[in-house]
Fold this sequence. Notes:
Helix content is 23%, strand content 17%. The protein is of the alpha+beta class. A 6-stranded antiparallel β-sheet has the order 1-5-2-4-3-6. Strand 3 (61-63) and strand 4 form a beta hairpin. Helix 1 (40-52) crosses helix 2 (124-143).
Amino acid sequence: METHQSNVPRTPTTVGGAPGGTCGTPTSGGAACDVVTVPARQGLEAVDILRRAAAEAVGPVLHDGGGTLGFLVPPGTAAAWDLPGSTCTETDGRGPVLAVPEPPAAADSGWLLPPGDADPATDPAVLRAALGEAARLIEAADSCR
């Protein structure tokens, strides 16, 4: 797996894959999703922000049961991901694939938002904005203590 953190400005045109795109299997003509990994506190706040947004939606989210969340994003996102405090991992076909006949059940599966209950993949630009807002909210809350 390859992890990228570059300083390339990200826009929907510089990020691989279609915004809000789908992930599939190499045999179905698609590629496995890339995964954006963030600290759990920031990730949970970002999920709330994304789910409250009327026009935008969040794709499947993995939870490791501990300190991190993983947002599934379209393949190719890792090539231009540059958000400090997070990583985007290219899965090279070894990562989560959403084109499955039966999505795993949420209980005991590691999915916070399992495939089937969420959009195919989170738009990287929308995720970046939500993670930024989440970081600002957390910083503001922590400074009030």
